[in-house]
């Protein structure tokens, strides 16, 4: 309610992300009453514009498909503020005119929000156009990942961005950070001494960040063929999870505090080693519609990472993700060391903290407890925290919904700074220069055989 009027421009408005996440996110914000009292949404992109009516129908369809229990009145109030204007990287004249008219109609102090849901190759030309047309002036720019395609192109993009806007206008979005369960990692670590003190190489033997997906391409062949798994998931989502798990306590829980903590962890991240990385491609990928029949794009990555700092020296981090795998999960596992001096008899078994990054976070700790009975022996017990039980009345925010709201409030806490992006590309660059050989895997499996043996002791997921 205290937000100024907004003109929200969505580039790539007919694309997959807009339909799946952005319009549904705007709808949910509208239904919660969290959008500004006055706003207009302009969709833009290259494709034949059709009329505003056709575009509005596509927004209605997208919301109906991806939101349960749609309130028709709320949806109509959103849709009537939506229009479509075509634009391209070469020509943004009509768009600039439409934005200025929409702003004039909303009064003074209108905030301009430009959401760039375009593929990495289109990003830099579009940003150039925003500069030339003056659209970038005073605007907040939401930039979708991946930010460039490698270290060099990301630096170029960053250079162009900085000639057009300042860093405090740029919101590099990584929707994993918008997830409640990911923010909960900060809460667990820094609000609970129990975890804070046992979160380093003295207590932890290894870490797994495991995000298998059952989904295949979902009609996104054009994007995926130009991107691949490393850029789509590892350099962004999984590395950001790594940042949340591995960083030191931020000086303050604000954008500069959290960025500073992540940047210093990423500065100690050893460049990924192609010899300790497995690339896979699921059988049948090359037959997918729109995929090059001889494509060598990886749909699976598993790798070993090291953070060479005081906290983590000697602790391996295993990252794994891929398409068409056996299960869809987002999970982090911290495997603890065994006690220094074992006084209980019996086989040691994993003592782990498990974070299931589902919509309602589930956290569990595998411990050892005394087995009831006459002997003083221990057996596995599990301590589980299920947020759906603890907060039955609080609705979790969907990631994009949360992040869109943060952009409107100008809060950069949950967005990535250019220094983080630069350090993460630096870590990924050896894999781009010397990609490991692609190994085939069966859809519905856990990836190539070689990846199963990467962590000593195996992966937690997929072990029966
Ligand atoms: C997107 C990737 O950023 O994240 C997709 O482009 C991936 O390939 C998706 O499937 C996973 O996100 P979520 O929130 O559905 O786990």
Automatic annotation (TrEMBL):
Residues 9-184 form the Glucose-6-phosphate dehydrogenase NAD-binding domain. The active site is at residue 237. Substrate binds at residues 175, 179, 213, 232, 323. Pathway: Carbohydrate degradation; pentose phosphate pathway; D-ribulose 5-phosphate from D-glucose 6-phosphate (oxidative stage): step 1/3. Residues 186-454 form the Glucose-6-phosphate dehydrogenase C-terminal domain. Keywords: Carbohydrate metabolism, Glucose metabolism, NADP, Oxidoreductase. It catalyses: D-glucose 6-phosphate + NADP(+) = 6-phospho-D-glucono-1,5-lactone + NADPH + H(+). InterPro entries: G6P_DH, G6P_DH_C, G6P_DH_NAD-bd, NAD(P)-bd_dom_sf. HAMAP family: G6PD. This is Glucose-6-phosphate 1-dehydrogenase. It comes from Nocardioides vastitatis. The gene is zwf.
